[in-house]
Amino acid sequence: MDLLDDLVTLLPELILVALVLVIITVDLFLPRAEKWLLTPLTVAGLILAGAACFVVWDINETVYSGFYVVDDLSVFLKGATILTGILSALFAPAYLLVRRIPLGEFNMILVSALLGMCVLASSSDMITVFLGLELMTMPSYLLTGLHKTDRYSNEGALKYFLLGSFASAIVLFGVAWTYGLTGTTSVAGIASALDGEMSAGILVAMGFLTVGATFKIAAVPFHYWTPDAYQGAPTPITGFLSVGPKLGAFALLIRVFAEALEPLRADWLVIFLVLTVLTMTVGNVVALTQVNLKRMLAYSSIAHTGYIMAGLAAFANATDPGVAAQGIEAVLFYILGYAVMNIAAFAVVGMLQRDTTRFGGLNSFAGLATRAPWRAAAMAVLMLSLTGIPPTVGFFAKLYILLASVDAGLAWLAVIIVLNAALAAFYYLRVIVYMYMRDPEPEPAPIDTSPFGSVALALSVAGVIALGIFPGAVLRFLEESAASLF
Amino acid sequence: MDGFPLLSAIVFSPVIGALILLFVPGTNHRAVRWIALGAVLVSFALSLLLLGYDPAGSEFQFREDLPWIDAFGIRYTLGVDGLSVVLVMLTTLLSVVAIVYSWEPIQTKVKAYYATMLLLMVGMLGVFVALDLFLFYVFWEVSLFPMYFVIGIWGGPQRIYATVKFVLYTLVGSLLMLVAILAVVIAHAASGNSLTFSYEALRGFAYTDSLQALAFVAFFLAFAIKVPMWPLHTWLPDAHVEAPTAGSIILAGVLLKLGGYGFLRYNLPLLPDAAISFAPIIIGLAVIAIIYGGLVAMVQPDLKKLVAYSSVSHMGFVMLGTFVFNEQGLQGAIYQMISHGITTGALFLLVGVIYEQTHDRQIAHMGGLNARVPRYAAMFGLFTFASIGLPGLSGFVGEFLVILGAFRYNGLVAAAAMVVVIISAVYMLWMFQRVFFSVPSDWMRKWWPSLRDMNRTEWIALAPLAVLAVVLGVYPGPVLDMISVPVDRIIEAVNGAGLTGVGPLW
What distance in Å separates the CA atoms of residue A108 and residue A16, rounded to the nearest whole number? Predict the structure, then answer.
């Protein structure tokens, strides 16, 4: 296989790289009044990259001396990544422009982060894992602090950066330790060097990897950076941060834990079970008391992390490969559904922050149903979907996780998940109460009605409902994706 | 009619109505109301075609079966037996009543109101005809959220508290049921069967004792909260008091029946061993509910709360009849559900008539209404007696059969349940006397000149219920014929050969 053939397998990544360069260049020549053109440009590029995913589907090859793998799992994750990118690029401009945050920088940094996530999804070597991780998180720090004149944005970015670098260092240390024990950095090599025998050294390595990785997905007790970073970041960017880096981090978890450390899955299962239960419960309980919607959604995103981790726990606890695959499929489906609904939910919060002095308080949603019936209806659907009510994608995603858990013999975990879902219903429904059952404020917040955001919102909601009723459309892709792990 | 998807048409014609409503300007209240009425009338008319159901057939009829989510073995399967038929017809009828009654009381956000009511009907009808557990669960949740909006938007002053309580209670139960559904489905698949959510396939499978016990508890919670069964009933009085009248009619008339239906359709046939083991406990709870509901109803100062607590008592009869596992008890339970839907729906409607005029429901504030609004008093009297269970009216048949069934189970239980016949006479008649015959209160005198008797819309809404209350009271045959085969099948499932219960529970 020569270099050129290998390059074809990188088509989505190459398009993203080209897109970054194009955005930088075009941004230089666009007059201020026409900067909005960057959005359709970025979206077009991302759609192209998404189309490229179909080209590399079903290739299933390891390229570049085993450093990079293009299997269906990675391609699925890349597709989901690019989807989050498209939605974010569409939702952001209105919010950024009224705050005079440069659109060109945003788009370019966003695409860089997407590139990092794609690399992470495809990494078959610990070095590539780390490379992808950094390529994803560095732009994320920048995005958080993109609103340079806002001190909350600065604070969030600083916290995210300091704690994030710390976590990256811990991951790196874990990688180094693993290398010391197994003599290889290749994912497959580690898996074959570990014969399922536990030792103190492996425990240390696993500990470091777990702490670093769960920091990135914001699992309790490594979640403290999340609410501040999420609240400080510009709202549509928060939407991206709450799913994008999380998607990448779960790609990392799958690569490291479900592949490299697969022989030890009975050992890390215990840690994961504890973290899963803690994460969803703490996230939900704290979210109950939030009156700022950005903070509420930030804590609720921690809870969703817990649900997704339950899928990995199901993978680890399964004795039958079919059931284990189901756990991974559940994780993938949940990430996809969650990405769409959460980005859209944050976007609606952002739409109500057209007035730059608004911070996304629950009060700004009061009486929204009479002021903006379509946006209120969209938000209601998103909230029901986040709660997990049929017929929405959130329901089917939760069902998938529950099915995988019960199938893997973790019925008690399923019960904890549904009790948490009921808890979450309380604060998600509170948004609906404000929108539909309360009168508007005396001076209601102005609402952004720019076309990009409206189209993206309509598409997201349509997707949330359509995937909820006909999830079969993506199930085939999921099965093939999960199959590439076995 | 071969090949015509009758059940889908019944279930989804309200959706079509709701979709049409999207394109009607919200300010044109008249058009909105007529479209909504048209949609439910279509649904009702189509449901009359279900009378072509063959009561002797032992399988589900009018079946529809389409693939849906193949990877999970989920199918779009609909079908009815006699039990579903009568409940579907009750639902479509009460939907018409609710839509007609809302004609005048609902004047704000009219379009949204009717669209929500129509969606609510889809959920309820779907629950009664779904034969796939996944589909059933979807409809179950779809029936929950429209009611949340109806109470929360068009309800009384404490509506937000009431509706959040309602939805959280119900959600906890139904989510646990979801886990139980999955557990049952997976247990069935684990023994070599293909993964399926089909009710007909899952029924009659021998699940292990521990699974049965746990799944039974989860199903029980979901349905018992909906029924609602003492001590899980506390959301009901709040929800009723705050709900708009039409919401109360649907809530009492149909939503509570979803719980009763769930027991009959899922708990008993799917998990018969657990049902046998848990029966004594549930019968105990049912007897408590019957007496407790009656006693609490007696002291309610609020007319609507009184009717709400009487529902707790009446639905206790349904639970009692269900869990004595004999023909009389089960037939009585189903009959009681139908009768309760009609009489309580009508009573809520009648309470609404006076409430619309005075915006007050305190019994102490009323009095002497018989002199001012005699026709209203007469109708109220009719349904009061039907609710008490006076022979010749619908309430009697159900209660009588349940008590008969209870006697075959245990004389003491029956005797305890009998007491409530007296209690219910006390609270209903005492209420009736205070509202219609005693001296009008000073408060009521203020309204005296402006009080009107029932108007045309109210008559139209009430008339079918009044006719049914009498007809079902004197001629229960057709309904009992309809439900006799399903009842036999349930008894067969529960008393099937070799069933001994899931063993000692503790």
Answer: 10
The residues in B 57-116 lying below 8 A from A, measured between CB atoms, are 68-72, 112
What is the amino acid identity at position A121?
A
Single-letter amino acid, residue A410: L
Mutate to test the interface with A, among B178, B184, B212 (most CBs of A within 10 A): B178
Q: What is the ipTM of this complex?
A: 0.89
- CB-based burial of residue B8 (10 Å sphere; 0-12 exposed, 13-18 middle, 19+ buried)? middle
Residues pairing with A301 in the sheet = none
Structure token pair of residue B342:
């009609």
Answer yes or no: do B153 and A475 touch at CB < 8 A: no
Looking at the complex, report in whole angstroms how far the Cα of residue B147 sits from the nearest Cα belonging to chain A: 13
The answer to whether the Cβ–Cβ distance between A419 and B172 falls below 8 Å is: yes
| DSSP secondary structure letters along A102-163 | -HHHHHHHHHHHHHHHHHHHHB-BHHHHHHHHHHHHHHHHHHHT--TT-HHHHHHHHHHHHH
CA A91 to CA A326: how far, in whole Å?
33
Q: A432: which chain B residues are within 8 Å (Cβ-Cβ)?
A: 152
Gap from B256 CA to chain A (nearest CA, Å): 20
Angle at A217 between CA A214 and CA A221, to 5 degrees: 50
Element containing residue A325 per DSSP (H, E): helix A321-351
* Nearest to A264, CA basis, from A330, A182, A358: A182
B 42-61 → A contacts, CB under 8 A: none
B378 vs A: CB within 8 A: no
Q: Which residues of A137-175 are buried (b: 16+ CB within 10 A; e: fewer)?
A: bbbbbbbbbbbeebeebebbbbbbbebbeebbebbbbbb
Residue of A nearest to B108 (CA): A370
- Which positions in chain B touch A376 (Cβ < 8 Å)? none
The answer, for B149 touching chain A at a CB cutoff of 8 Å, is yes
- For A437, the closest of B142, B160, B178 (CB atoms) is B160
Burial of A473 (0-12, 13-18, 19+ CB in 10 A): exposed
Residues in Cβ contact with A180 at an 8 Å cutoff, skipping those fewer than 6 apart: A201
Q: Which of B 190-249 lie inside 8 A of A, CB atoms?
A: 214
Separation CA B100–CA B480 (nearest Å):
29
For residues A301 and A466, give the distance between their C-alpha atoms in angstroms, rounded to a whole number: 22
Contact A153, A147 (CB under 8 A): yes
User: Tens-digit pLDDT profile for chain B (506 aa)?
Assistant: 457 888 888 899 999 988 888 888 878 888 888 988 999 999 999 888 888 888 888 788 888 888 888 888 888 999 888 889 999 999 999 999 999 888 888 888 888 889 899 999 999 999 999 999 999 999 999 988 899 889 988 888 888 888 888 888 888 889 999 999 999 998 888 888 888 888 888 887 888 888 888 899 999 999 999 988 888 888 888 888 888 888 899 998 899 999 999 999 998 888 888 888 888 899 999 999 999 988 998 898 888 889 999 989 999 989 999 998 888 889 999 999 999 999 999 999 998 888 888 888 888 788 777 778 888 888 889 999 988 888 888 888 888 899 988 888 888 888 888 888 888 888 898 888 888 888 877 777 877 778 888 888 888 888 999 999 999 888 888 888 888 888 888 888 887 644 555 544 44
Cβ proximity of B376 and B356 under 8 Å: no
CA A369 to chain centre: 29
Which residue in B145, B160, B186 is closest to A433 by CB distance? Answer: B160
Task: Give the one of A414, A432, A479 whose C-beta lies nearest to B179's C-beta.
Answer: A414
Set of chain A residues whose Cβ sits within 8 Å of the Cβ of B137: 390
B153 → closest Cβ in A406, A437, A472: A437
